[in-house]
Amino acid sequence: MSKNEEHVINDRVDPPGFSLTFPIYQTGSYAFPQGERYRYSREANPTVEELERQINIMEKTERTVCFSSGMGAITTSLLSLLKPGDNVLTTLDTFARSSRFIKDFLSTWGVNSKISMPGTDALLENIDRKYLVFIETISNPSLRVYDIRRIAEKVHSYDGILICDSTFATPENMNPSDLGADIVIHSLSKFISGHNDIIAGSASGHMESMERIDLTRRTMGTNLDPNTAFLVIRGLKTLQLRMREINKNGISVARNLSSLEGIKKVNYPGLEGHPDFEYSRDNLKGYGGVLTFDLMKPSGDPYEIFKHLKKVKAANTLGSVNTILAHPKTMSHRSLSDGEFRVLGIGPETYRLSVGIEDAEIIVDDIREALEKM
């Protein structure tokens, strides 16, 4: 019997040596005794494990667990590490769906939730006891860049846990674990997969915490399917190239939009007027692909600008090879109150732009022409 034939008989739990692309293990279960390690694909799947291995290397952590969505990664991680009576702290500029889960759901489960105003200094003032602190390395959509090292030091001084959603930064621009974060979350649907054709998430961190999170994932069923894992693995192959272009486009588009007639303000970590510019300059390898801008004279119809765009896509997402424009107040952050919008500086005139890999001039010209037609 040849070695390759033995692989097939043994259910191919390891990919054959001649396969350049890790295969999709499209199975619900596995034959015993050879497949005892996997048993059932809700619990473990070789294609998903390969994705976890690759993300783990990129994030420089001990173990990674993948999920059916970014929110699956967030909710499963929080439910694994919190119990009634524990304290959880997040910031007002955290993605609205994450914030709602912490404020509205966990509080009904007996967890004490607290919301800090945006910014590193404001958050540090609120850390006065043992907390599980959940933040975004670059917040959505306020684009505040958090000082992970300072936050981690204070969280750990109270024996707390720091979880960072680093979707906007990606491992190409920052590794939060190097700065003291205990767990790093990604919505793999965004920059990491990069093509807006999948929904997935991941959590990476210390072995003990990740084993607890993985056990909860198996019970809750927030597992990632092998076809999606295969597509994310494909996206990882070009992540470095895509982020290099996106970082370059981000700063170019931000600077050029700042001088466009009809635009009042541009918010981007790479601009000197950004409140966290000095920290961003010294700690990010690139400023990322997301910026916001405010129109000088907003239309009564927030979607009017969408109607005049030819190349930029309008959608409730980000992180693609294509440039995407969204209106946070009526799209991604529509669940926030008027008071919360005011604190975050988000109004009907605010738009979130996720730049892709197109030429920066094409992106700016498309927005300029759309503004001229409004």
Average pLDDT taken over every residue: 93
Indicate the CATH architecture of the largest domain: 3-Layer(aba) Sandwich
Summarize the biggest pleated sheet. 7 strands, mixed
Number of domains: 2
Q: What would you note in describing this structure?
A:
The protein is α/β, with parallel strands linked by helices and 374 residues long. The protein folds into two domains: 3-236, Type I PLP-dependent aspartate aminotransferase-like (Major domain) (Aspartate Aminotransferase, domain 2); 239-373, Aspartate Aminotransferase, domain 1 (Alpha-Beta Complex). It is 38% helix and 15% strand. It is built from 14 helices and twelve strands. It has helices at residues 3-9, 46-59, 70-81, 96-105, 120-126, 148-157, 170-173, 207-220, 226-236, 239-258, 277-283, 304-308, 338-344, 360-373, and strands at 63-67, 87-91, 112-116, 132-136, 161-165, 183-187, 201-205, 263-267, 290-295, 313-314, 324-326, 350-354. The strands form two sheets. Strands 1-7-6-5-4-2-3 form a seven-stranded mixed β-sheet, with helices on both faces.
Note the main attributes of this structure:
374 residues; alpha/beta; Aspartate Aminotransferase, domain 2; seven-stranded mixed sheet; five-stranded mixed sheet; 14 helices; 12 strands; globular; disordered N terminus
